[in-house]
Amino acid sequence: MLKKLFKLDLFLLPVLAALFFALPFFQWIGLGSGVLLSAVSIHVSAWVLEAFWEREWNVFNKVFFFSLIGRFFIVVTVLGILLATTKIDEIYFTVSFIISYLCYSITEMIFFTKILEKKSSTK
Predict the structure, then answer these.
(1) pTM listed for this prediction
(2) Hey, how many other C-beta atoms are within 10 angstroms of the C-beta on 81?
(3) CA 27 from centroid of its chain's CA atoms
(4) Residue 19: which of 79, 86, 95, 76 has the closest Cα?
(5) pLDDT score, position 89
(6) Residues 44, 71 contacting (CB under 8 angstroms)
(7) Which residue blocks in the chain are alpha helix, DSSP H?
(8) What are 110-122's pLDDT values in tens digits?
(9) C-alpha span between 95 and 30 (Å, rounded)
(10) Cβ neighbours of residue 82 closer than 8 Å, sequence gap 6 or more
(11) CA 69/CA 10 separation, integer angstroms
(12) Nearest to 46 by CA among 8, 77, 94
């Protein structure tokens, strides 16, 4: 799953690079930091899925949901710190964060569904 998410990153990288030349500096920093924050959160989730998928189901559930809660609080904290302490464009940051987080989350759910389908077909 991580390899597929990195391929998605390779698709988003040229788009961000093109926006770098089209946007003023503070807007680009807001856009880039929003995408980076969402990408890190989703990649951590993908790592948890890959690392704990073969474990006992109770262990997987505990680790997955604790990581979900932990990632939520970390993202909210970093989001607040970034918006309070930096002079980035808040609109570009917020919109890029929400859009990229949705994009990554949908991709993650598609991969997760495929993993579940493979697991159920082997039984």
Answers:
(1) 0.62
(2) 10
(3) 20
(4) 95
(5) 74
(6) yes
(7) 2-22, 25-52, 57-85, 90-121
(8) 777 877 787 777 7
(9) 9
(10) 33, 37, 88, 93
(11) 28
(12) 8
Q: Tell me the C-alpha distance between 5 and 10, whole Å.
A: 9
Q: What is the pLDDT of residues 75-108, one digit of tens each?
A: 888 888 877 887 777 787 788 778 877 877 787 7
Q: Which two tokens stand for residue 11?
A: 């698709």
Least confident span in 3-12, 27-36, 61-70: 3-12
Dist CA 61 CA 82 (whole Å): 31
Cα radius of gyration (the chain):
16
Selection from 2, 32, 19, 48 nearest residue 100 by Cα: 32
